[in-house]
Amino acid sequence: MKTELLKILRETDDYVSGQELCDRLGVSRTAIWKRIKKLQEEGYVIEAVQNRGYHLIELPDLMKTDEVRSWLSSKWLGKELYYQESVDSTNTWAKKLAEEGAPNGTVVLADEQTAGKGRRGRTWKNPKGANIAATFLLRPQFMPEAAPMLTLVMGLSVAQICREMGLDAWIKWPNDVVVSGKKICGILTEMSAQVDYVNYVVIGAGINVNLSVLPPELKEIATSFYLEKKEVFPRAQIIARVIEVFEENYEIYTKTNDLSQLAETYNQMLINHGRQVKVLDPSGEFAGVSGGIDRSGRLSVKKEDGTVVKVMAGEVSVRGLYGYV
């Protein structure tokens, strides 16, 4: 009932009478009053006026399941939704749930992440109450070699929502979303698989939303929604939209089990596209001009001698010739 009550209050510009809420939710006035009191205790500013009803004045910035569900209209992704105030890593938590039999489309969320995972063993910390830490659990019906490309599907989805929210967002291949040349989202995909069968895939995204202060070592390479727009964004709305858009992109992806139908859109948002880059390969660094991705998610890089190299995510890192992008 809480989810539906939040939807009604948020989507109504004026007061909603207690009787209308009773009729729409099929409960008593007492039940409505108790639920309103509970919402007020959680930080929702709700005005109650006799003979007029209830009016939602202000939303707290919460990531709890009922708040996210009140924004969410996906078909299957996020129907199983879990939230904890603090976890070490949402990916670790999602993998534990996967091993326990959690279904395809499960989404886990945390308000704080103390030991989040980054690419190549790096950590990704998520301070309490400021950002989004989310992991999607999928049980796809394709071969294991198709799973790494889901990192790019997530990157595209997050970048699209950043733009929807008014940010000039771009994708830095393969797993970062950037705004103003700085990282606003990092993505990590992990898989449990047999030789010819995927048990499950977890895709984690850490999105900087209402982070207002960055440590000195990150000021030149990271940013947030708040730092870019100087306003607080509802994190529940953002992650709900990411869930919805990722679901759409994932369904397109699984029609062919490659990026053939998403590559054009992805390349239009690729900040590396057509620029000088430095490829950090374990076998040796080299420079070249970045092209777009192909259907397998490989990045084309044209070296100075005219040779075109197809760079595979997971094997190398790509940087701008003179900096991060």
UniProtKB/TrEMBL annotation:
Catalysed reaction, written as an equation: biotin + L-lysyl-[protein] + ATP = N(6)-biotinyl-L-lysyl-[protein] + AMP + diphosphate + H(+)
Location of the BPL/LPL catalytic domain: 66-254
Keywords: ATP-binding, Biotin, DNA-binding, Ligase, Nucleotide-binding, Repressor, Transcription, Transcription regulation
SUPFAM superfamilies noted in UniProt: C-terminal domain of transcriptional repressors (SSF50037), Class II aaRS and biotin synthetases (SSF55681), Winged helix' DNA-binding domain (SSF46785)
GO biological process: protein lipoylation; regulation of DNA-templated transcription
Coiled coil residues, start to end: none
PROSITE patterns linked to this entry: BPL_LPL_CATALYTIC
Entry-linked PANTHER family: BIOTIN PROTEIN LIGASE (PTHR12835), BIOTIN--PROTEIN LIGASE (PTHR12835:SF5)
Free-text function comment from the UniProt entry: Acts both as a biotin--[acetyl-CoA-carboxylase] ligase and a repressor.
Family: Belongs to the biotin--protein ligase family.
Protein known as: Bifunctional ligase/repressor BirA
Native species: Blautia hydrogenotrophica (strain DSM 10507 / JCM 14656 / S5a33)
Lineage: Bacteria, Bacillati, Bacillota, Clostridia, Lachnospirales
Recorded name of the encoding gene: birA
